[in-house]
């Protein structure tokens, strides 16, 4: 007997890793995801099968990956499969459900008011059980058993006073949707001799994790991608953290004990496929775990609010029951 954990990299994979120790499993486990710095770091020491990357809403990517699901089931005797999305869930769960495997799809925490396109499709697939992380839209088809956010609560930060003032800016691993607006505005605030240095009287040091965003023309030292553990370590040492409002980045920041300024990408600026990041940012604000800001209107006061609080993680969260 083997349990399959399958998720696209980014927020989907981060959530599944966060939930895995709360889920009942059958015997051994195997993970399926894409190969990048995040997945190799998060899944170090686990049994992992890497598959070619598929972009958002890629029907051709799903069809290309389906033969791998067939081969995996034949070779590993998969008896249970769990996924948090997105495209990889469509490539694996319908086939496995048709073969009698118990399949569970847990909708992303980013979907605060209703399911994603992937969720809507899988809800109609016989044999795939679907779960929401929000009780307000659970019903007969969508079970609520908890959320990845249940483990976190905000606390006052100790607060450093010496140089330098460490800042981490992170926008995740997505390559299809640049977020240059955020870097343009932050450079104005964080530049040497700029508003944050003048306000605090401290030297500002910035880690710019830029992902797939081109930043040519901005005088900053870009680090497109970092292994998850390195980014987590940098965030844990930071005084201020600014992040796009992606689920994976938000969880990474909370897990490192920091209270982020979350800046949602918008569909209007072609920074995301829809505006679900705004929903997640509002949910984290409601829980007291983050501050929300808009990319064009970020202020020094908002940045300093990040330094005023920290976040604690409870390792004894309740089990996530599977039907």
TrEMBL record:
InterPro entries attached to this UniProt entry: Glyco_trans_28_C
Gene3D superfamilies the UniProt entry points to: Glycogen Phosphorylase B (3.40.50.2000)
A Pfam family matched in the record: Glyco_tran_28_C
Domain Glycosyl transferase family 28 C-terminal: 221-310
PANTHER family: GLYCOSYLTRANSFERASE, UDP-N-ACETYLGLUCOSAMINE--N-ACETYLMURAMYL-(PENTAPEPTIDE) PYROPHOSPHORYL-UNDECAPRENOL N-ACETYLGLUCOSAMINE TRANSFERASE 1
Protein name: Glycosyltransferase family 28
Lineage of the species this protein comes from: Bacteria, Bacillati, Actinomycetota, Actinomycetes, Kitasatosporales
């Amino acid at each position: 007997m083997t349990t399959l954990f399958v998720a696209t990299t980014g927020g989907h994979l981060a959530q599944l890793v966060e939930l895995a120790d709360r889920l009942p499993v059958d015997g051994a486990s195997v993970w399926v995801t894409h190969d990048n710095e995040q997945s190799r770091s998060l899944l170090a020491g686990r049994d992992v099968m890497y598959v070619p990357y598929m972009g958002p809403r890629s029907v051709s990517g799903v069809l290309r990956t389906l033969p791998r699901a067939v081969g995996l089931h034949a070779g590993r005797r998969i008896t249970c499969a769990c996924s948090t999305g997105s495209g990889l869930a469509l490539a694996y769960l319908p086939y496995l459900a048709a073969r009698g495997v118990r399949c569970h799809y847990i909708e992303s925490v980013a979907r605060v008011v209703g399911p994603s396109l992937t969720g809507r499709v899988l809800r109609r697939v016989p044999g795939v059980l679907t779960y929401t992380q929000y009780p307000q839209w659970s019903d007969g088809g969508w079970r609520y058993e908890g959320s990845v956010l249940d483990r976190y609560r905000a606390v006052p930060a100790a607060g450093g006073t010496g140089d330098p003032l460490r800042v981490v800016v992170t926008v995740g691993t997505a390559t299809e949707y640049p977020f240059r607006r955020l870097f343009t505005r932050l450079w104005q605030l964080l530049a040497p001799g700029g508003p944050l240095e003048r306000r605090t009287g401290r030297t500002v040091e910035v880690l710019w994790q830029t992902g797939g965003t081109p930043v040519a023309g901005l005088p900053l030292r870009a680090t497109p991608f970092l292994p998850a553990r390195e980014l987590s370590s940098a965030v844990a040492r930071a005084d201020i953290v600014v992040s796009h409002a992606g689920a994976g980045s938000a969880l990474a920041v909370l897990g490192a004990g920091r209270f982020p300024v979350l800046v949602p990408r918008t569909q209007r600026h072609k920074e995301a496929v829809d505006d679900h990041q705004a929903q997640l940012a509002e949910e984290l604000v409601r829980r007291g775990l983050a501050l929300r800001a808009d990319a064009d209107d970020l202020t020094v006061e908002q940045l300093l609010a990040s330094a005023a609080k920290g976040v604690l993680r409870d390792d004894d969260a309740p089990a996530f029951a599977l039907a």
